[in-house]
Amino acid sequence: MSTRGVGGLRAGAPESFRALPGSQAYLKAFALPDAKKTVLFIDFDNTISQGDVLDSVIEKFSRTNQWEHWQTEWREGRISTLECLREQMEGLDVDEPTLLDFVGTVKIDPDFVRLQDWAAATGTELIIVSDNFAPILNEILRRHDITAPPVYANALAFADGRIIPSFPYRSAQCPRCAHCKSVHFARYVGYRTIYVGDGLSDTCPAVRADLIFAKDSLAEYLRKQGRPFTPFRNLGDVVAGLGARDPGRANRPAAALCGGPNP
């Protein structure tokens, strides 16, 4: 499924790197507590990766342009996210080695490693949650020699020349999402939660988090909802906002990313 249509729905222009009214105080007020009680959830496509991986896979390997039809059906509310993703993935014509070779060329944000270092230094759990598919994400991380943190994503199998997607993290309480990322919060009751993401598939977990870093469609959604968040352009901004230049600051208020409010 093209994540511009479902997983991401990017807002056209890049997010202006300025805080919302009150968001500077919001970030300053977020003092990390006992590091053992903090968890950071992070999206993958266009957050860790540079660009939308699933978009490129669907556009490259679809047998026909039928994937655009399913996307339109989803946009107009006639099918669910899960139905859209299933139809689009089943419409691909690619074997596993070719798919993994293709995604192996994907670039990732170089500051993801710094974010991992910050998490390790502060004892914060770092977890990837994605509406993409686990074999794709794991291959990209492997190609970059990155020790993968826990990855929660949709599942993908290959059998008899067919691609078989499945959705182990679908929630019966959330008809909108194929992978409702907020289901993972249930295992972290009592933790302070940080969320980093960019698309509408990130709205469910973001609104449950204590601290949100957002860009693109997620930022636009939160702004319309009047919810505070800290905008970011790349993971270097997130690292700076969390005080990763000095891991000893982890239990003190994080520095604000930027100054004034939106005009």
CATH C-level name of the domain at 23-51 and 107-251 = Alpha Beta
The stretches of 5 or more residues where confidence is low (pLDDT under 50) are 1-27, 29-33, 244-263
Q: State the helicity in percent bands.
A: 25-40%
The residue-averaged pLDDT reads 82
Structural notes for this entry:
- The protein is built from ten helices and seven strands.
- It has 263 residues and is an alpha/beta fold.
- It has a domain at 23-51 and 107-251: Rossmann fold.
- Strands 4-3-2-1-5-6-7 form a seven-stranded mixed β-sheet, with helices on both faces.
- Helix 3 runs antiparallel to helix 4 (81-90) and helix 6 (112-122) packs parallel to helix 10 (235-241).
- The chain is globular and about 45 Å long.
- The relative contact order is 0.22.
- Mean pLDDT is 82; it is low at 1-27, 29-33 and 244-263.
In brief, what are we looking at here?
The protein is an alpha/beta fold. The chain has helices spanning 23-29, 53-61, 66-75, 81-90, 96-103, 112-122, 134-143, 203-206, 216-225, 235-241, and strands at 38-42, 125-133, 151-159, 162-166, 192-197, 211-214, 230-231.
SSE blueprint:
Blueprint lengths: L22 H7 L8 E5 L10 H9 L4 H10 L5 H10 L5 H8 L8 H11 L2 E9 H10 L7 E9 L2 E5 L25 E6 L5 H4 L4 E4 L1 H10 L4 E2 L3 H7 L22
Parallel strand pairs: 1-2, 1-5, 2-3, 5-6, 6-7
Antiparallel strand pairs: 3-4
Helix pairs in contact: 3-4, 6-10
Q: Which features does this protein show?
A:
263 residues; single chain; alpha/beta; 10 helices; seven-stranded mixed beta sheet
